[in-house]
Amino acid sequence: MENYLKIAQGWRNFASLMKKTGPVLIFLFLLALSLQAQQRYTVSGYIRDADSGEELIGATVAVTGGGGLGATTNIYGYYALPLPAGTYTLRFQYLGYQTVERQLDLQADTRLTVALSPGEEQLQEVVITEQRPDANVTEVSMSREKLSVEAVRRVPALFGEVDVLRTIQLLPGIQTAGEGTTGLFVRGGAADQNLVLLDEATVYNASHLFGFFSVFNPDAIKNLEIYKGGIPARFGGRLSSILDIQMREGNNKEYEASGGIGLIASRLTVEGPIVPDRSSFIVSGRRTYADMFLRLSPNENVNNNTLYFYDLNAKANYILNDNNRFYLSGYFGRDVLGLEDIFSLDWGNATATARWNHLFSENLFLNTSLIYSNFSYGFEGDDGTTGFTWGSRMKEGNVKLDFTYYRNAANTLTFGLNSLYRHFGAPYITFDAATDFTVPEIADRYALENALYIGNEWKPNTTFTLEYGLRYSLFNNLGPSQVYTYQEGGERSNETITDTLYFDRLQNIQFYHGLEPRLASRYMLNSQSSLKASYNRTRQYLQVATNATAGLPIERWIPADRYIRPLIADQIALGYFRNLSQNRIEASVEVYYKWMDRLIDFKLGDQGNILFTNNIEAEALEGRGWAYGAEFLLRKNVGKTTGWIGYTLSRTMRQVPGINEGKAYPARYDRIHDASVVLTHDVSKRFSVSGTFVYSTGAAVSLPVGKAEVAGFTVPVYDDSRRNAFRMPNYHRLDLSATLKNREKPGRWWNSSWTFSIYNAYARKNPFAITFEPVYNGDPNTNPERDPIRSVEAGAVKVYLFSLIPSVTYNFELKPGKR
Amino acid sequence: MRVFYLLLAVLALVTGGCRELVTLELPQQEPRLVIEAELTDTPGPHTVRLTLTQDYFSKAAAPVVEDARVSITDDAGNSQELLYTQNGVYATQGLEGVIGRSYTLRVEWQGQVYESSGVLSLKPVIDSLVVQYFEAIPPFLDAGHYMLFYGHIPRGGTRYYRFKIYENDSLYNDRTDLLVPEAEFMPDTLREVRLGYAFTPGDTIRLEMYALNRDMYDYYYELRTLLFNDGGLFSPPPRNPTSNIRNVSDPARPPLGYFQVASFATDTVIIGEETD
User: What Pfam families does the record tag this protein with (chain B) (predicted)?
Assistant: First the structure.
């Protein structure tokens, strides 16, 4: 306890210090703008894939012999590099592509768009002569992981379904709630503290089939990046992480089709030019057929059911001219589950994004986005007496303006604003026929969230880089709504309500605002190693009302309001980055400490009380959390053998007055040790093998300290001051896969491959959950209602989901243009 | 909520997952006092059972407490010490439960004093029980004779109830039989409420409807949440239901269990012919 008080005191001092950083940051911005440059011109343009015309994100352009002068393309493939007048040799690079060099006599602003060819065959030769990109060491960013979809595809997949979220969970600092769940727990943050963006649109529930798969069809995805810390000022709205996913644009030169047939799902993608070199489209779909297996079951309780999900991604873009480009993209996906005609449940997300890239000049880039996203679910049930419908919908509209100002080689400014309106549809229940049951009417909630930000990346010299930014977020909980007032000083409950206040449409109920300073710096120790440090504050104005760990599709999002305050987190991180073996191997160590304030938990702990209530504040308890850890990563991106080894040592704690007798306790997803090994080896041009091994400390759980006889039940008894004080068995698993491609022939216009994979290769029965319940006849599968009962005793039952699961997937690509 | 356990079962079937017994090294705790006290609107005898907790995997019956002093007092000046009978049970003699009165339980054991109070609420009314045959709707409903319940709550009655169903005098008492309807959904009049049990002709079915105090309703609600706990992944972390009995001597060490003060209505029906 004393220890904790010290931590709390330290935290307060730190927080007040950080409040003072605001003016300092503003001074730095003014400094950045006042630096008067000599005669400079800007070379700018796009870096693209020569075959498909797709923009390459994060490709680099460097001035050879320029002492580290260079630029990186943004998520639209645009780069700008202001330089003094002169003659330069520019080198354009992207991993897996052939490097291109261009001579340039810069005497005016110059547009230089470069197409790089995929260069897998040349890779071996290039390795000897060419420096690998050393971005890992030289970039200012830390606590950030990029994954190419190609890398994701090579990881062995459950049921053969390539899954980006499951692959991300293999990186250090990112945990899962349990096998079979795709919820992310980043550096001690809860699953609702991640902002998941698909072409900038929020995806509220990124899981299919209760979390076995994520909603991201790998065929439609180009790039993904997760920020665990050091979050730039342009992102905000969630405490713990930003998962930024971009969809592909589609080939703007030739028509192509690709797809796959798997054990449980099939995929098909069609893409091509609308106007060659100016405009392209991509449409990608995926559908599972798990219910086909249900049909095979002889059990008629099973074979009459439907259970499937589908995803549809579509995107089109149009290059109007050098300065204007438009994008339209959308996603629609749903899960459908039906038990005969009696019961059906479906849920899913829909998103739409319209974007306009505009260049005011070579140095000033603007992206404007209009975004809509929604998540909804609906139940329908009819048990023979009264049918009912139960549903809910969450909607979000968003306008964003993001400017990038390439001021000079030493300063790149980003600034912009963001205005977001949310409609939190409350769960409703309606009955088909008249019924005596009174259904509580739960009111919808409304909120407006605005943010302004400015950030600068300052590179005064080649050894030091500082990225600093400030985000100012403002939040209004709006009407129409009703708000209860409670007796002063007492506990909030239905019995202590004193009054009800009514608010009109768009009337302000509660206002919150605050600054979110962001800092990141890098210091080069030598050409192969660097030290990095970052600090960021984040605020979050909505959360999922739940006290369970894993999410269900019926989860309820609630805004901050008069009683529920917004969440605040502060994180500091330090890192040492070193590249080995001529940049072929990247190594890093990061340590972090994160404070999370105003976390909520719930009193009674029944979801019903949380879903169907208008005064959730009567159930909520406010507390805090903290997390700290060290993350080690060794990664090899080039060569015949690629992959990574990651290890995380960490703790995640919570403290909520009224829970666990007020003492600190570990979060369920607290994992002391978490290690993963992901390796892929190209045996030949046609044949590759890969393997994944994961090991982690068991989940933190509460175990019974005894049992009691109460009300005719034998009930496990818990120690209410030792929440999550015990551990499930340690988790480990090995997955393997092998891919065989077709033979290469000149002029062949199609490619295909077979992937065979085994999930959980040594069939470990990793517990998904352990329950304490009466066991009849010594067999946990006895049904006491059907089977004769000979004995009953208190038992512990392990539930495991997956044994060894083999699968096979056939993938193909059709390129008629190559014929 | 329970629908999700069914869905999880379907998923486990798809994935080839399974349930099996495990033996775990479980933490130990000193035995704690468990109080099960009930008082109804009848002349009694009303009973209080005192037992102790024991190791989770113990094969023995719960140890009983025989040397406690137990008394019940009402707000009309009646007080009575309960006599020990057997099997941990203490019983009243002629203390009558009267609707509207408040009752206080006091237990003294090993230097600790435990207390709880409750009010006997207005009785609910069972208007009739009707038996009707339903065809099967798998997997939700088996074919059989079902009981339809008609009843109402008197003006000024509570919203907190528990139903108990007895088949030939034996109580249905699995975790699914803890019938405590959501207070928010509780109407004033209940018509044609089908109870989820398929009976066979010849069964004698008794229904009891208890009018609970709020704290007792919460207790049952939390008890049911605990009995359905999945280990804390989709359900909240398991915890003991909040007892409505406090330890007066040492408030930091509350007992387990409850003091239920509840009036009840009851009716019996014999399954055989269809009634209208």
Answer: DUF4249
